[in-house]
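Example record for the data management plan.
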Amino acid sequence: MSKIGMVSLGCPKNQMDAELMLAKLHDAGFALTTESGLADVVIVNTCGFIEDAKQEAIENILEFAQLKKEGQIKKIIVTGCLAQRYKEELCRELPECDAVLGLGANDDIVSVVRDVLADRTVERFPDLSCWNLDGDRLQTTPDFYAYLRVGDGCNNCCTYCAIPHIRGRLRSRDMDAVVKEAQTLVENGVKELVLVAQDTTLYGAETDGVSKLPLLLSRLCAIDGLHWIRLLYCYPEHITDELLDVMAREEKIVKYLDVPIQHASGSVLKAMNRPGDRASLTALIHKIRARVPGVVLRTTVMTGFPTETEEDFEQLCEFIKEVRFERLGCFAYSAEEGTVAATMKQMPQKVRQKRRDIVMELQTRIAEEYQAAQVGKTVEVLVESFDRYAECWFGRTAGDAPDIDGKVFFTTKERVAPGDLVQVKITEYMDWDLVGERV
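Corresponding structural encoding:
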């Protein structure tokens, strides 16, 4: 039986597509391997969100093209956002690819693999309405946590973002299907569910404009054996009192909220086609912290947007100093083809990057003070693995999302295993990570 390897790049939503495809291939009897360089067929599930992601995807494709030329692999299939966005260019410029599939063709992955193994070239880009978000998944995260996609696509149409062009308008999954999938994951050993969508806060709002996320969370909290529920991609303009009340009330929902704001200047936000300004965002952050005591807030911001003046940038920095997010990431604006912002007069890249560096230096100082305040506290840690170089275990607190935030490194005299929940007393910190000992 032919061996299939997959490299999935980009965000957790893309990872969900990969897991659905892997389950179909597994059920069809194909042998799956994590050693993609030794596979007969390699599937590159690409990201195409920003320039760095596109470059990473192309580099992966070219590396496998070289392995194909050397006879180590036989066929290359390209799927995901880059394939959806640049279908003509990929088919024309990368003839080494045996198949290029749009998102609507994900369900066809088994037949496509069979086609390429029979030396047939496939280029398939059905309508996005064919893109199925449901089905069995082959979990690629560790046994104890999993992403749970509640929807995909986006209606926000921010001027810098190509996602609506790539993944279409918002489509929420059926609530019963989401709950059933969550139950199956928990039965298989998952202790933490991380809810994702392009805009998680708009789950179920397509018909009447009212988010069904609070109801979904209440149903998920009723699942026996589930320990943590985490929310990512919660847009500030859609965070409601009802959502905050559910977060405060339900113990299983970790007091952690990912709120991408992108900027604090009202004029920049308006140019981004996003609502709000510094005053409204400050009021929202204060409200979240008042209604959900102890919450850890993560955000992302952007520097160097075409209309950003020195005054706008200073306003962003002052806002960050005032609000003091526990977690913050910053990236320099990248002009994306097909977006409104790409048609605007662009700022020099070195200015965008310099401003990004200033923000991260500022956040580093804020984060250091936050980390120092954790010393002496005892926190619950979800054990992830053993670090043989540091000769200690590590895991995450409720305030740390997987693959994004820091770790807790700790020593213990008792046996532990990945997926265990243990109490750790923090004794020191190292940059973004905490250090402690099990108590």
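Summary line stored alongside the record: The chain has three domains: 3-130, 145-374, 378-438.
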